[in-house]
User: What shape does this take?
Amino acid sequence: MVSWKTNIRPLFTDLNRGCMLRARKPQPNRLAEDVSFDLHLFDAVREHADKILLEVTSGNMPRDDGPRWDIDKVRLFAQWMMAGMPDN
Assistant: This one.
């Protein structure tokens, strides 16, 4: 069984976390929208899991200088989602 504490939480490095805590979405003709969240918090990752999966699958995340997720990490995250995203 895929575990949040053992398998999923460790996928997000401190560098990844820092990047997402500073994330802003450009908005035409106004201030950038704050789209930040904490990748080390279960509830935040669960809430944004669909977007995270899309971003890691497309290679757009992580956006920092860290390596992109390989297919095994993407599959692990998807398995966790399919298992109902347990907090274990």
Observations:
- Strands lie at 24-27, 30-34.
- Residues 4-82 form one domain.
- The chain has a mean pLDDT of 86.
